[in-house]
Amino acid sequence: MDLTQNIAAVREKIAAAARAAGRPPEEITLCAATKVQSDATIRAAIAAGIQVCGENRVQELTAHLNADAYSGAQVHFIGHLQTNKLKQVVGKVALIQSVDSLHLLEAIQKQAEKAGCVQDVLLEVNVAAEASKSGCLPEEVPVLAASARSLTHIRLRGLMAIPPVSAGPGDNRIYFHTMYQLFIDMKRKMKDNQEDIDCLSMGMSGDYEDAIAEGATLVRVGTALFGLRPPA
């Protein structure tokens, strides 16, 4: 694995996809999904230009924070988050991308108030209503967004989705299009904090170019950068 070459190749594809969609490449943030990666690999990725890391597991997040492995980059939490783990996440990451219920929103609000911070969040949407995945349903977004807006220690930044595993190129564009429409509609209704809502996180190693074509502002890429994941 040549990490530097992989990062350069992914950035080139991001730029090409953005230009094909009539968008400036700098609109797209590359979030390196660092699940099960070592401290050394994360440091190497940051040295090679990665500016945002995304962690799936609280235990790994805590270990990497303790080792200062993310130095020089932002860290986002992108995995399923349990309320009993909030103390290890709230105020420790720049963005929680996986908020999927009012219960979790209120728990984050309580922990952020204790920590004396305002926590940036995305609402995770189960865009295909898959039983195996977390996330609110698309029709629940307006109520959750209004609830987030009312909480003083939470700042709503946008939406995130993990669509079904695609069998081939273009298969997920319908879901990405749905997410973009939800994002635009939510932003339009949030008249008092439209400037805050700037992040549509969707697209991973197999489909990030399609996600960009449909309006993603952040893509979460792991395998295309680091290769197949090593054993946990």
Q: Strands, helices and their partners?
A:
Blueprint: H1 3-20, E1 29-33, H2 39-47, E2 52-55, H3 58-66, E3 74-77, E4 95-99, H4 102-115, E5 119-125, H5 141-149, E6 154-161, H6 173-189, E7 199-201, H7 208-213, E8 218-221, H8 223-226
Parallel strand pairs: 1-2, 1-8, 2-3, 3-4, 4-5, 5-6, 6-7
Features:
globular; TIM Barrel; alpha/beta; single chain; 232 residues; 8 strands
Q: Which CATH-level-2 architecture?
A: Alpha-Beta Barrel
Q: Look up the CATH topology.
A: TIM Barrel
> Main beta sheet, described?
8 strands, parallel
CATH level 1 class label = Alpha Beta
Mean pLDDT: 94
Q: What is the molecular shape? A: globular
From the N-terminal CA to the C-terminal CA, the straight-line distance is 18 Å
- The secondary-structure element order is HEHEHEEHEHEHEHEH
Give the amount of beta strand, in percent.
Answer: 15-25%
Give a count of the beta strands, DSSP E runs of length 2 or more: 8
Derived from helix and strand composition plus strand pairing, the structural class reads alpha/beta
Strand order of the largest sheet: 7-6-5-4-3-2-1-8
Query: What is the total domain count?
Result: 1
- Work out the radius of gyration: 17 Å
| Name given to the CATH homologous superfamily | Alanine racemase
* Helix content percent band: 25-40%
Low-confidence stretches: none
Number of helices: 8
